[in-house]
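Course exercise 7: structure representation. Students receive a sequence record and must write out the corresponding structure in token form. The form below is the worked example handed out in class, using Low temperature requirement protein A (365 residues). Read each field label carefully; the graders check that inputs and outputs are placed in the correct fields and that the protein name is recorded exactly as given.

STUDENT ID: A-19
EXERCISE PROTEIN: Low temperature requirement protein A
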Amino acid sequence: MQVLKKEVSEFELFYDLIFAYAISRIASILFVGADQQLSFKSLGEFFMLTLVFWTIWTYQTVFANRFSIKNKTSALFLFFDMFWVIVLAQAINVDFEKTHFTFAGATSILFFSIALQYYLKMRSTEEDIVKKLCNQLIIVLCVSGLIGFMTILPWGTYPIRFGVYVVSIFITAFFPIIIKKALEDFPTNFGHLTERYSLFTLLLFGEAIIAVASTIIFNKISIGSILFFLLVVVMFLFYNAVYKSGIDRQKDTAGLVLIHSHYFIFVGLGLSIVLYENYVENDIQPLFFILCLAASLLCFLGGTIANMIIYTKKEHNYLPFISKSILYFAAWIVISLLIQDFMVPFLLVNVVFLLFLLYKVKQEL
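STUDENT ANSWER:
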């Protein structure tokens, strides 16, 4: 089935701004305790909250990619959803139980709103492929929305209700993998999809620059802040190099790897920025910092490289590159452990490592 070419609209960019703000708000739950570490509870909530916002944004983005056109109905849905995303963002709290009613309720409203858009599309088309796809997505969104409403009712203990809510979000987030065949029968407009994800990632890099600014005092600029800024720049160049030169935007695909890899890219970018910020301000225990940073960079770099490999512009054997990259990453961890107590040398090694990996990626491309 042929999908019409389209560009990212100003309405979509407007919609993305509030999501970028919301995801940046999630960082507020990641605070360093008296033991100079992030709690496992706050890390778990960070992953879960990012998954919630990524899931809502992805379902709306994929709908716009396949079906949305510029009309009053689409605009009204967009503005309606934006308001509830604002509510959702303001419900982010270090004590999540206090705001669960508002958060889960807003999540359900957004799921029902997106389901209604799919329903209206299903009613307006004669294409069996489109009807089948819309029907499957409507069911999972409505079920997840109902479960979300159920978890705000006073039954059982809060941990149980929260667990049910998390499971429903997880199933909704990764349900498209289960219906891969239906999605492949009606492929995405891959050029539009890659542009939308890259522009949203660019907004997140903008939030990263704000994090750098928080470490700078107007009359005192530290070397740590300068190196922190360079790290953000190199990470941006790494992502941009793969997007510009490593992805075939004309591919006929459901785009599932691109979509789901960006959850890990968003998590990796957000967590690494929080970690670097606390390290520059000497608020975090170095060994804990390195272990968490290794995991976050693995998410960011791995997710980005996965897109380069899966959506490559030319047939190429990436296995040697992957094997060598694993060795480079292991070497970086060893060196980092040796110099963990020396901030400037450590950050400098980070900049050099990412620049080296960027050079290797460009060689592959």
